Amino acid sequence: MPVRYTTVRLSVLASLALVLPSCVDEISADLPAPPNVLVVNSILTPDSVFRVQVSRVTSTVDSSSRLLSSARVYLLTPGRGEELLRNQGRGLYASANRPTSGVPYTLRAEADGYPDASATDTVPAAVPIREGWHSYPTGTNRDNELLGTIVVRFDDPAQIANFYEITAYQQQSRGQSPGYNRSQDFVLDARGNAALAAEGDAEFDPGSLVFSDRLFNGQAFELRASFAPFGRMGGGTINGQYVGPRVSGDVYVVLRSVSRAYYQYRKSWTRHFYNQGTKGPGGDLNQLLFLGDPTRMYSNVNPGYGVVVGRAQEVRVLPVR
Question: Does the record's keyword annotation contain Signal (predicted)?
Fold first, then answer.
């Protein structure tokens, strides 16, 4: 989540060197100094204590640490004054308290030589999942690979703007070892859903489904999305033929109720991540060679960069149908 001022893409340079070995010239240039501001990042959730990371904007030639371990971070809660968060080192600061839904919290960071930076957000109330299940396989994609279907239903609270994020993943036992392995989140394809189609995110290969209730405010909502298991879960056979990755563990869905600031941040992050050319495992070499123009990340930190955003979530195991 930390915001970077500039990024050197070594993989891009290496790829270009292979393609254009004789077209490299060295030039001298006076690069503008980075803005002298703080970067503050925090996700507020009722499931965890307040945690904040504070860093600074740096240039590509600055080898010193971006993380600030000498900052002072204050939590301001209406009716309770302010609390100085504990310094945990390496730019991390924490409180022993947890956020409560519906309360606007302000985080303010101070550091010598920088203007004070602050941001305010509220954790929304969690919206429960009314019903959900998954089936596999239910179809194939254009490469004839098996796909499954996930269905999630919930009731949207009326008369207020609500924002959501949905992810799903599978979890497998480690055999004789204790604990479980969690796969990468499934890539959910919900292009047939009007509310998701209106977001305009499908072309950017989003890692999660982020959407508003603009088209279904106060109504029951159903998400029906296709998914493909990841290869790390192993292959399987149907009628004696290998069919690639399979669902062999519990399937979980996560429904997050998120703040407007979280929604705006994730929307800008999806476009930024896609534009970097690093989408998917290992990235896309073609996209790495032809990167688009930089995209501006959303920030509610003033003055400075980063985000302070709120979310609440419900996690449920999806039965098989």
Answer: yes
Coil, helix or strand at residue 11: helix
**Side chain identity, residue 4:** R
For the chain of 321 residues, list the mean pLDDT of each consecutive stretch of 10: 42 46 66 90 98 94 91 96 96 97 98 98 97 94 90 97 95 58 78 95 91 98 90 47 65 97 96 73 55 82 97 96 91
The tokens 């519990």 sit on which residue?
250
For residue 115, cis peptide bond before it (omega within 30 degrees of 0): no
On whether the CB atoms of residues 168 and 252 are closer than 8 A, the answer is yes
Which overall architecture, per CATH, does domain 10-122 show? Answer: Sandwich (2.60)
Spatial separation of the C-alpha atoms in residues 110 and 175, rounded to whole Å: 49
For CA atoms 239, 240, 241, 242, the dihedral sign is positive
Angle at alpha carbon of residue 10, lines to 9 and 14, rounded to 5°: 125
